[in-house]
Amino acid sequence: MGRSFRERPKNLGRKLKRIRLNLGLTQDAMIEKLGVRGEPLYPASISQYETGKREPPLLVLLRYAKLADVSTDVLIDDKLNLPR
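Above: the chain's sequence. Below: its structure in token form.
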């Protein structure tokens, strides 16, 4: 079974970084704030999400959305912006 290409959100990483910075959190503090059990997160994980090198697992993405008080649609859809 091969892997097929799928379109990725181009602005997701930028939005995740903005959420973290707006909360005034370091990458380590963000990991604690996300509080995702069963999903090992490290500062390198957060960095890779924010630079777009990796996409976060769905549960992590959901936690980001809840922390920012936005729908996951806002994070995923490049046409939608985070509220100020």
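The two ends are 43 Å apart (CA to CA).
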